[in-house]
Amino acid sequence: MANGGAAVNDSTPVAPKDASTVMLVRDGVSGPEVFLQRRVEAMAFAAGMTVFPGGGVDPSDAQAEITWAGPGPQWWAERFGVDRARAQALVCAAVRETFEECGVLLAGPTADSVVSDTSVYSDARTRLERRELSLGQFLAAENLVLRADLLRPWANWITPTVESRRYDTRFFVAVLPAGQRADGATSEAEHVRWSTPAEAVARWKAGADVLLPPTWSQLIALGEYSSADEIFSATTDFEPIEPVLETVDGKPRLRFPNNERYFADYPEGSRLRGSRPAD
């Protein structure tokens, strides 16, 4: 989720579009690490922000005929509180966006295996990013099974109604599959890195990165766990969070869980300082 741009002047809020974001984690020397990317300044959405891989749901995500392993669309529908087709689209978008943006593919030749070398699918990755190929077409052509069991639902944030570009984003968590590596080979990111949640928050406090409320909130939550497996096994509150714009001491400020802690640590000199951070 990211800065949605100018506020909406019309009294009718823009309807949020579905999106999926994946927090890819692994165990590091100092504890669990999460994959982060800084989006290029030319992006229309979340320009320059440090985020997790993810993006909007594509119409083809709901229409795909996919061989599926793990919890089925109905299981996800119950967790998300949506219908089956919409749940499938959200999971497919999570898998597709993770592959497009960092080369990690949550799929395998069988229901209990996962590909180890994704570089052999580099051409398909490019075509997926260009929307020349759908996830369903790619998996079918390569005889791959989508591994829904490698994903877990984590959180749900909705962009405030005052924004002109809004998303209803489901956050997922996934552990980096053995043998795979996450990279920065995407047109949407200018820099990528693995970082412990504490290191990422420290960089934000120092003004080195821009973390909007949803990203910051997930990093704070991830920092409570001691291993990637512990994160993956966690049960989280999946109630939707939609920040509300309010006035505090004469200034606009978003209200969301732990917002006082967020604004207390908000870095001086940040390019968002004094403005309305959006999700």
TrEMBL record:
Record-linked SUPFAM superfamilies = Nudix (SSF55811)
Q: Which UniProt keywords apply?
A: Hydrolase, Magnesium, Manganese, Metal-binding
Annotated InterPro entries: NUDIX_hydrolase-like_dom_sf, NUDIX_hydrolase_dom, NUDT19
Keyword Magnesium part of the UniProt annotation:
yes
Its needed co-factors are:
Mn(2+); Mg(2+)
Entry's Gene Ontology molecular function annotations: hydrolase activity, acting on acid anhydrides, in phosphorus-containing anhydrides; metal ion binding
Q: Which residues form the Nudix hydrolase domain?
A: 15-218
Q: What is this protein called?
A: Nudix hydrolase domain-containing protein
Q: Which organism is it from?
A: Nocardia macrotermitis
Classification from the root reads: Bacteria, Bacillati, Actinomycetota, Actinomycetes, Mycobacteriales
